[in-house]
Each structure stands twice: as C-alpha cells, then as structure tokens.
Design goal:
two-stranded antiparallel ribbon, mainly beta, seven-stranded antiparallel β-sheet, disordered N terminus
C-alpha cells in the first residue's frame, strides 16, 4: 500500500522534532501503521505550506512540488489549529504522488504509447518512469520538477515537439486536443492527445 503521513513539528533545544503517524491503504481503507518521532533540521514553520496555513482561514492546498526530504513529487494540505482563540499549530498531510507514476506503467495506450501527467507549466507530475519526473539542479542540490521539454524519454520528447509544432498553450487548454505529429528524425507519425 501507499503511505500517508500526518505530522506536527515542535522545537526542542533548537532541533526540529517531528511526530509522524504513517498510514497505508489496505483493501481501500486507510489503516494506521506506525508512529515515529524524528529529530532533524526539518523545521515546518520555515515551509511555505506552514506559513500559508497560518495566514489563511480554512484548509490550504499547495501546488505539486518536489519534497526536500524524499526528493519525490507531492503536495500538502494543511490547516491552522487554534485552541481557545490562540494559535496552537498546523496540521498537515503530505501526499507523495509517485504511486500515480507506478499506475501509469500499466495504462494501455496502443501498442507503443504511454501516458503522463503534467501541470499548466508543462512540469511533469507523473510518468511511467518516475526518474523522468524530477531532477536535481546541478551544483545547487535543489530538486525540482522536470519540464516536458527537458525530458529524455523518446515518448515525452515526441509529446513536447507535438505541443510546440501544434501551437498548444497548455494553460488555456479547455478540451481534448489530438495531433498527428510527424517526427522529422524517425519519419514516424505519432498520434498525441492532450486533455485538460
């Protein structure tokens, strides 16, 4: 199953301490697995999702980004907690999206096709090869989502070229768009579909 974590962060002698409860999905049900207390330099109040939750009434959601700790794509949802009118902390659920990439390995798209998910900025969210989704900026040790145009996989390269030659603005795509793209290198014709 997949793991879902719920955590709170508190400071103890200038060290960050995280209480994490791990859950997994068993037969479609969320089941508690284990709790861990970790001490490290991860300090939630410095994270943008934490600050956004403190500044917002109600539940917040982040966009997809690469987690600092696991180096995998994911997103957070969080809510600021108050007790008797006083700020008491932030409850956050971090959701890794790698399982979607694993699912896409089994999606049938013809004999040689594949499927991927990207955002409006053409950053990859999921692909059958999870290594294509993220990369580390050389010399900075900063992980980030890979743009479709930076991909090495031949299927993704074809998709990127189809967007470019078809003049598709992904951010304004309102309905499914299909393109017959002829690759000048291989001479092959590829049918590429995009859906919002």
């Amino acid at each position: 199953g997949s793991a879902l974590s719920k955590g709170s962060t508190r400071t103890a002698e200038k060290k960050a301490v995280r209480d994490i409860d791990y859950y997994k999905v068993v037969d479609g049900e969320l089941q508690y697995e284990v709790s861990r207390v970790l001490e490290n330099d991860y300090y939630a109040p410095q994270r943008s999702w934490f600050r956004k939750a403190v500044d917002t009434k109600g539940v917040i959601w982040t966009g997809v980004y690469v987690f600092d700790t696991s180096k995998k794509p994911g997103l957070n949802t969080a809510i600021s907690l108050e007790r008797k009118g006083t700020f008491d902390g932030v409850l956050s659920i971090a959701i890794e999206l790698e399982r979607i990439s694993k699912y896409l390995k089994n999606v049938a798209a013809g004999k040689t096709g594949g499927a991927f998910i990207m955002n409006d900025s053409t950053e990859l969210i999921a692909f059958q090869d999870p290594a294509e989704v993220t990369f580390t900026v050389v010399g900075k040790d900063i992980p980030r989502l890979r743009r479709l145009g930076e991909a090495k996989n031949p299927q993704l390269v074809i998709a990127s070229q189809a967007i470019e030659t078809g003049g598709i603005a992904m951010g304004s795509l309102k309905q499914m768009r299909q393109i017959a793209y002829r690759d000048p290198v291989s001479g092959g014709t590829f049918f590429v579909s995009f859906s919002p």
